[in-house]
Amino acid sequence: MEEENITSVNEKLTSFDGDKVFSAKDVSVSYGDFVAIKNVNMDITKNKITAFIGPSGCGKSTLIRTFNRMNDLILGAKVNGTITYQGVDLYDKIVDPVQVRRRIGMVFQKPNPFPKTIKENITYGLKVNNMTDNIDDRVEKALTQAALWDEVKDDLDKNALELSGGQQQRLCIARTIAVEPDTILMDEPCSALDPVATKKIEDLMQELVKEFSILIVTHNMQQASRSSDYCAFFTTKTSDDGKRRTGELVEFNETSVMFTTPDKELTEQYISGRFG
Amino acid sequence: MDLLTQLSKTSTKPFEKIVRVFITIAAFAAIFISVAIVFTLSTEAINFFQDPEVTLKEYFTATRWTPTFQNPVYGVIPLISSTLYIAFIACLISFPFGLFSAIYLSEFASRRTRKVIKPVLEVLAGVPTVVFGYFALNWITPNIVQRFIPGTEVFNAISAGIAVGIMIIPTIASISDDALNAVPNSLRFGSMALGATKRITSLKIMFPAALSGIIASFILGFSRAIGETMIVTIAGGQYPELNLDPRSAMYTITSSIVNVSLGDTPHGTTAYNALFALGITLFVMTFILNIFSDYIARKYRKEYE
Amino acid sequence: MSDLTINSGRKSEKALKESIFLFFLYFCVIVAIVTLMTLIYDVLSNGYNRLFGDYEIGLITKLQIDNPGDFLTTLDSRDPLKAGIGPAFAGTIWLMVIVVTATFPLGAGAAIYLQEFAPKNKLTRFLELNLTNLAGVPSVIYGLLGLAVFVRLAGFGRSVLSGGLTLTLLILPVVIVASREALKAVPDTIRQGAMALGATKFQAVFGQVVPSAIPGMVTGMVLGLSRAIGETAPLIFMGALTYVNYFPDNPLSGFTAIPIQVYNWISYPQAEWLNTSSAGIILLLGLLLSMNTLALFIRNRFEKDW
């Protein structure tokens, strides 16, 4: 097991300079007066898994939501700096957040299937994206890719809320990939799941990354070290008067480096469990 | 097609636009209703006061309401006094019963008992007022009021007041119950931890803590009693002069509105306009009470947020 | 030893106070329940014979309607033994149809706008405050509004259409508030989930949120409707109290309704009318109770455990 991990990490090392899917420059996010995270600079590599780690309240969930403009939905949220997606400024005036989200899918912390049948959960996204040709094939393909097909193929008309938590989350992944995005954002996708279900999602991610670029926010350090190629470590800085806490990017590195010889002392302290 | 073009905005579908416009109009319909109420009531009421037969002074000082007599007199005083009198009797019934039911529900009742009593209160709240009117006239008057209070007439203020009171018990109970439930448990447990009994806790701690919510429920109940129409029309009688004896008939604003409208009231007649003068009088009274109740309720909600 | 006695003396005094207080609370609740039961018993005992026509027992022995069900279909009469509630029953059905047709789209639409689309600004807050206030306006005022707006201004006359629209205005605030609650109960994760798939706000709301909230909205609608059909006062201005003894056949027909008919019968002095009006009340209460049961059923059957 250990050996396998090491070899796979070595393979990944060779492609460190792959294509960039996102590029964030001086990104800050604020809600009203409150600055949630500031001055983030990073490049996200295509077809790799990039993990965001750090103590709670460090703004990592806030940051991931700027990559598909989900932050637009929060009242008073404001993004400064630039985020480019394949060279296009995501916050350009003529860019429609709806179009952005069609290409950059998202899986949430708590499984949130629609209270409809399993099939309808997949077809909803297809319908809003006008992908209504070969619906049955698309449903099967998405569920297969999400490693759920074998478990549900006989009761596609069952209500999705009757599935287990892990199955619900894989259904949410399936409906996300059904609309053929090129990137998937995952906001702590396993935090509500048991270890067995978590393992399944992690295995699934290794399959999916062949086709998609994946960004994942996680609380679980083992998860980040096991499954990601790159890792961004965030922490919070408290203002001088002690009243405000703002998230900051401490270190962005290859996961193998981050978990063995991190550049920053703070990272090492966090990883070794001395704080956070 | 380059990526920026693909990501750029698409125009909204016409269907979507139509639906959006419709729901916006629907939301603003409520404003339309309010404006229409104020506008229609006041324009027709102004017509009433411009009528040579009536003067503002007579309306507010005369002590009889006899619009159908040979020499009609339009004095609102007996109507207002009857309205307040019956509402007052209703409060004597509904305040204690409503409040103590609420205290029982929130502080003493088990979950299961609540599950039984709450629907009973809901059913009581759903009984049409015409049924309460029937009950007041055919049951409360002969079986309670006339039996225990000699000299009571068939149409009397006591029965009407009692029935209105019963009708608003659920309003008071459910709003007071909400107010008591909104008090943080820490207060309740804090008091009990000091050795206070449930009785002391509910009377000395919970009641004062929820007081503003309870007062809001009282004011709203009072406003309901003032606006109640069918019970007082059926059981309260139509005595058109100033009268303070609750054993005899009275004449509330609402029942006089009903009775004027039952007569022949073509548009433009003094009687027709009188309807609206009474209407705006009633509207202003209940509106002030409702605003006041809402203001107090808002204040208490803030206290525990 | 003596200390203990004193203590227990105090304790029992305390316990006594405690039980008296509790007894008093019980008393208040029981009075409310007993009142309701008395009311129902009184109505039933007066109206049963009239409605179900047992020829042998009770006060009314000379019922002249052959079939008890005929009470629902026969015309009103000057004779309490012959009077049926047919036209009023039909009028109430007409009112229900008009009220539902007008209230549901308006109420649901307004709720969807306020809950999902309205900007959080002063105007929206004013709209909300306005709704609360409208819910507290006495129903008789709505009658005057209907008289001025529908009967006269719109020229619908004293018709079942004017009556239905007036009741619509009356229950609209209640239905809007209930529909908003239903929408509020749909978790935000559903909206986000839909929008993360590339749905527009509009698609998310109408494709996912509203369908999930429909049972709650229908429940609110049914409860509002049951309030509407129990209303008497506003309909008096629609001419519903004049002697209407025919079945309305179009929206502009004159009409009467069950509560109005009951009020009419209550105001006759002869004792026989008491039974007839009780029979009408039984019908009215039965109708309301079954609607409330329906609302409860929908709520329990379709309520989602998010």
SSE inventory with pairings:
The complex is a heterotrimer of chains A (276), B (305) and C (306).
Chain A (H helix, E strand, L loop, with lengths): L1 H13 L5 E12 L2 E12 L3 E5 L6 H5 L12 E9 L2 E2 L7 H7 E4 L10 H11 L6 H11 L3 H4 L12 H14 L4 E5 L7 H14 L4 E5 L3 H7 L2 E9 L6 E10 H4 L6 H7 L5
Parallel strand pairs in A: 2-10, 3-8, 3-9, 6-7, 7-8
Antiparallel strand pairs in A: 1-2, 1-4, 4-5, 9-10
Helix pairs in contact in A: 4-7, 5-7, 7-8
Chain B lengths: L2 H5 L6 H37 L5 H6 L3 E2 L6 E2 L2 H32 L2 H16 L2 H20 L8 H26 L2 H9 L4 H12 L1 H17 L2 H6 L17 H10 L7 H34 L2
Antiparallel strand pairs in B: 1-2
Chain C lengths: L1 H51 L33 H32 L4 H14 L3 H15 L6 H25 L3 H9 L4 H30 L2 H4 L21 H9 L5 H31 L4
Question: What's the gist of this structure?
Answer:
The complex is a heterotrimer of chains A (276), B (305) and C (306). Chain A contains 11 helices and 10 strands.
The sequence of SSEs of chain A as H and E is HEEEHEEHEHHHHEHEHEEHH
Question: Largest interface, with Cβ-Cβ < 8 Å?
Answer: B-C, 81 and 82 residues
Order of helices and strands of chain C: HHHHHHHHHH
Top CATH class of chain A: Alpha Beta
Query: Spans of chain A of 5+ residues with little confidence (pLDDT < 50)?
Result: 1-17
Based on secondary structure, the structural category of chain A is alpha/beta
Assembly type: heterotrimer
CATH fold type of the largest domain in chain C: MetI-like fold
Query: How many individual β-strands of chain A?
Result: 10
- The number of helices of chain C is 10
Distance between the termini of chain C: 60 Å
CATH superfamily of the largest domain in chain C: MetI-like
Taken from the alpha-carbon principal axes, the silhouette of chain A is globular
Largest sheet of chain A: 10 strands, mixed
Over all CA atoms, what is the radius of gyration of chain C? 25 Å
Report the β-strand fraction of chain A as a percent range: 25-35%
As laid out across the biggest beta sheet of chain A, the strand order is: 5-4-1-2-10-9-3-8-7-6
- Tell me the strand percentage band of chain C: under 5%
How many angstroms does the end-to-end distance of chain A come to?
28 Å
Describe the protein's architecture and organization.
The complex is a heterotrimer of chains A (276), B (305) and C (306). With 276 residues, chain A is an alpha/beta fold. Chain A has a single domain, classed as P-loop containing nucleotide triphosphate hydrolases (Rossmann fold, 3-Layer(aba) Sandwich). In chain A, 35% of the residues lie in helices and 26% in strands. Chain A contains 11 helices and 10 strands. Chain A has a 10-stranded mixed sheet. In chain A, helix 8 links the parallel strand 7 and strand 8. Chain A is globular. Chain B is mainly alpha-helical and 305 residues long. Chain B has a domain of 199 residues: MetI-like (MetI-like fold, Orthogonal Bundle), CATH 1.10.3720.10. Chain B is 75% helix and 1% strand. Chain B is built from 13 helices and 2 strands; from the N terminus they run αααββαααααααααα. Chain B is flat and about 85 Å long. The model of chain B has no long low-confidence stretch (mean pLDDT 89). By secondary structure, chain C is an all-alpha fold. Chain C has 2 domains: 62 residues; 217 residues, MetI-like fold, CATH 1.10.3720.10. In chain C, 72% of the residues lie in helices and 0% in strands. The radius of gyration of chain C is 25 Å and the shape is globular. The N terminus of chain C is likely disordered. At the B-C interface, helix 2, helix 4, helix 5, helix 6 and helix 7 of B face helix 1, helix 2, helix 3, helix 4 and helix 5 of C.
